[in-house]
Amino acid sequence: MPAKSKAQQRAAGAALSAKRGETRVSELQGASKQMYDSMTEEELEDYASTDRKGLPEKVDGDD
Asked: How much of the chain, in percent, has pLDDT values that exceed 90?
């Protein structure tokens, strides 16, 4: 499932970085922390690799 917004794509990238040990988990906050805790590395890769062109900055709700 691809990311639905630029903010979601960036949060997934931050969480993926922490999963890979490139960033400290303690540096995560908000959505990226939740994504780190609840998603697999494969799921995060899918979200983080979404092309941001044409995506809205944010989306409302949890569609």
From this structure: 79
54 in any annotated domain: no
- Whether residue 39 is contained in a domain is answered as yes
**Residue 17 maps to a domain:** yes
Total tally of structural domains belonging to the chain:
1
Joined tokens for residue 42: 């494969």
Counts of helices then strands in the chain (DSSP H, E): 3, 0
Maximum Cα–Cα distance across the chain? 31
pTM, rounded to two decimals: 0.86
Alpha helices in 1-63 (DSSP H): 6-19, 31-38, 41-48
